Amino acid sequence: xxxxxxxxxxxxxxxxxxxxVVYKKVSKSFGDLKVLREIDFSVYPGEKVAIIGPSGSGxxxxxxxxxxxxxxxxxxxxxxxxxxxxxxxxxxxxxADEKHLHKMRGQIGMVFQQFNLFPHMTVLRxxxxxxxxxxxxxxKDAEDRAKEMLEKVGLGTKLDNYPSQLSGGQQQRVAxxxxxxxxxxxxxxxxxxxxxxxxxxxxVLDVIREIAAEGDMAMILVTHEMEFAxxxxxxxxxxxxxxxxxxxxxxxxxxxxxxxxxxxxxxxMRK
Amino acid sequence: MISIxxxxxxxxxxxxGAKVTIQVLLWSLIFxxxxxFIAGLxxxxxxxxxxxxxxxxxxxxxxxxxxxxxxxxxxxxPLFGMELSAMTAGVIAMSLCYGAYxxxxxxxxxxxxxxxxxxxxxxxxxxxxxxxxxxxxPQAFKIMLPGFGNISIELIKGTALVSLITLSDLTYQALTLxxxxxxxxxxxxxxxxxxxxxxxxxxxxxxxWMERRVQVGRA
Lengths: 271, 219
Prior knowledge:
The structure holds 2 protein chains of 2 kinds.
Chain A: H1 2-16, E1 21-30, E2 33-43, E3 48-52, H2 59-66, E4 74-79, E5 82-83, E6 86-89, E7 92-95, H3 98-105, E8 108-111, H4 123-135, H5 139-152, H6 168-180, E9 186-190, H7 198-214, E10 218-222, H8 226-232, E11 235-240, E12 243-248, H9 250-255, H10 260-270
Parallel strand pairs in A: 3-10, 3-11, 8-9, 9-10
Antiparallel strand pairs in A: 1-2, 1-4, 4-5, 6-7, 11-12
Helix pairs in contact in A: 1-7, 4-5, 4-6, 5-6, 6-7
Chain B: H1 2-43, H2 48-63, H3 66-76, H4 86-111, H5 115-123, H6 128-158, H7 170-180, H8 185-213
GO cellular component, one term (chain A): plasma membrane
Membrane topology (chain A): Peripheral membrane protein
Pfam families (chain A): ABC_tran (PF00005)
């Protein structure tokens, strides 16, 4: 199976390479509410990590910090050894400006729970706009790349449609293509199937599986789909109460959960 | 046929007035919407000073009467050495007053765009300027249109006030005519009504056409 093959490649990279993303004692509070408590967490190049856990456990916030949608309250996140939210000035870390964030963010891509397609643009335009405006690709090349990715997610015939003319599953697949054309090194998925009607979940998960099998892009998936996480991920991270309670290979986590909290979470999910 | 002849006598000077009204209107429309975008975006700025300046401007010009603003700009500013022609003063006062109202339409429309749109634009690494220009404003513009239509029509009616700072606009001409043809009061004011409506009509149709145009792609 493709996934198994890619998993072996990833395993090799984890043993030989440095982690690409590193969280160091990262905390996040919204007012008095502590959402993340001193999280230490790493992702290796090409690694597929699934984050599972009850609602409100901080898993979405964890990836929103990496996409720079939310600023950490304390701690440092590094991408390829460079602090994301900070700049080093004379050996001291100071808060980064928009310019620094812009430079760093290009390495990260994200797929949202609510798709967030641009409703005033066609499917094709959704997938070319940032290539042209942000990456400076010429329109012709941008369109070729967009078409290739839209083909891959099975929407090669919907180029001129507007998002409102598509089903939720189709919209989410466009959103995946839109993120892919930017060639991120790490792709974040924030509960990509939670807003979908049950019969549309499969088509989106299949597309994500296929991308995961290609291997070279790291992925962090926040998901409630346990079977899918087991299939796709090299590593499962279980969060609860703003902390990482347990992590390990899908086999370890699902077949032999150590902590009581993970055991009871898995019991509830199976019901 | 007394009435046809009377109207023929009235129309030329009314049309002269209509020209002035249309001139004030077009200039005011342009500046109103420029000001509306500047003040509307200013009020959403992340810098407090810009937010403060925008707020003060909006509240002063929304909170006082257009007539008083006209008087200030035309009669009071010259006392401080700023002499303006009646046309300039009229356009400035109208634009500042209606710009303040329209800025709230701009602000409201921008705020109504879902947070997810900003986040998607950030995730694609667009700069703050690109997010606003390519993602938020095109969507917000559609929401602004009905409000802009209203403001434009209000503006046409507001132009009647410039007659009070000596501009010979449509209303001014009608009032002058009435002084010389007191017996024709009904005819004069009926013509006035119709002429104002015909000035407003293309504007109403234009806004309606724009609204239909931007519906593309929306559910």
